[in-house]
From TrEMBL:
Residues 285-360 are annotated as: Disordered. Transmembrane segments: none annotated. Residues 285-300 have a biased composition (Polar residues). This is Protocadherin 1b. Residues 342-352 have a biased composition (Basic and acidic residues). Residues 1-28 form the signal peptide.
Length: 360
């Protein structure tokens, strides 16, 4: 009895399924799906596909109308053929294809209604998708025709510096394939190029091969080229300007290790003691108030080193050549053996006025 009940239930379900199938077949809103392929940037009136032949419909007696897909597509109302229009299909500008990962397909959706004029039934709706195939129609470009990198002169050999990457609106095999660096003879032994791979992106990096010296040369102009993987490949280039920045790698030196001079004991303030060519000598007075009130009382010398001047320590502020003069407030008396003695004031007439100076 249970077997008969199961058999009857199966018969009823079978009949119901057949009835639903017939209803769907006879319905005016049956939806079918179809997929075509076309390469982007095709000229106008390029045939993409024929709905009549693809759907097994007769060539006459049907009306085709494009519901979704304008302005990139048009449909022949009698034959159901789908064509491109005057507006080209650019894969890189389609809304649904802008943020795709490499290798993901790009689709343009369309809908076409088909009405059987002989039967007078309601229209059938066909939903379809067109896969837009990539064409190598974009050239890779750098962000600027001149790229700049600043590299300190004390950079060690083997250090890498990132070069701004180029961009290509094409993807996959038509995207960026490689970079190349061209150097002149003056930079051939100093710089090279390495291309690293980060996920799906290629990253150009400059390698320092030799020792840099800003005092010998402070800039280099190189040429960097980017090429894509299309057939034929597209390429562009930019000027890569390397600026060598200064590092404190030179020690200031006097021309001599020892200087001597004689000074009469009654020498006035500001009397010239020594003439030191091409090196700097600085001093400060004990009277800082006098420093601020009358800077002209201070004599100093500079050969063109960095500027440095504070209210408490008057040193050079620009290249100049001049004598080392006697400070107004005090000087140091030396003993006959050259050692530094006590501090003497110019007004102390009992003190020795002879001075022996040495700088190392």
């Amino acid at each position: 009895m249970m077997c008969q009940s199961a058999s009857e239930m199966w018969s009823r379900w079978s009949a119901m399924l057949v009835w639903i199938f017939l209803l769907l077949c006879c319905s005016a809103d049956v939806v079918s799906t179809i997929i075509y392929q076309v390469t982007e940037e095709q000229p106008p009136n390029t045939l993409i596909g024929s709905l009549a032949s693809d759907q097994g419909l007769p060539d006459t007696g049907h009306l085709y109308k494009l519901e979704v897909g304008a302005p990139f597509l048009r449909v022949d109302g009698k034959t159901g053929d789908i064509y491109t229009t005057e507006i080209p299909i650019d894969r890189e500008t389609l809304k649904d294809c802008r943020n795709l990962f490499e290798g993901d397909p790009c689709f343009l959706e369309f809908e076409v209604s088909i009405t059987d004029l002989m039967k007078g039934t309601g229209p059938r709706l066909i939903e379809g998708r067109i896969e837009i195939l990539d064409e190598n129609d974009n050239t890779p470009q750098f962000s600027s025709p001149v790229l700049t990198l600043s590299i300190p002169e004390n950079t060690h050999v083997g250090v890498l510096f990132a070069i701004p990457v180029a961009t290509d609106r094409d993807s996959g095999s038509n995207g960026i394939a490689d970079y190349a660096l061209t150097t002149g003879p003056e930079a051939a032994n100093l710089f090279s190029l390495q291309v690293a791979q980060d996920s799906d992106e290629k990253l150009p990096q400059l390698i320092v091969l030799g020792n840099l010296d800003r005092e010998q040369r402070d800039s280099y102009d190189l040429n960097i080229k980017v090429v894509d993987g299309g057939s034929p490949p597209r390429q562009s280039s930019a000027l890569l300007r390397i600026t060598i920045t200064d590092a404190n790698d030179n020690v200031p030196k006097f021309e001599k290790s020892h200087y001597e001079g004689e000074l009469p004991e009654n020498s006035p303030v500001g009397h010239s003691v020594l003439q030191l060519p091409h090196r700097r000598v600085t001093f400060s007075t004990a009277n800082q108030g006098q420093d601020l009130q009358d800077p002209s009382q201070h004599s100093y010398y500079d050969s063109g080193l960095e500027e440095s001047e504070t209210p408490s320590s008057k040193s050079s502020s620009g290249p100049r050549i001049g004598p080392l003069a006697l400070p107004e407030d005090h000087y140091e008396r030396t003993t006959p053996d050259g050692s530094i003695g006590e501090m003497e004031h110019p007004e102390n007439e009992g003190g020795s006025r002879s001075r022996k100076a040495g700088w190392q």
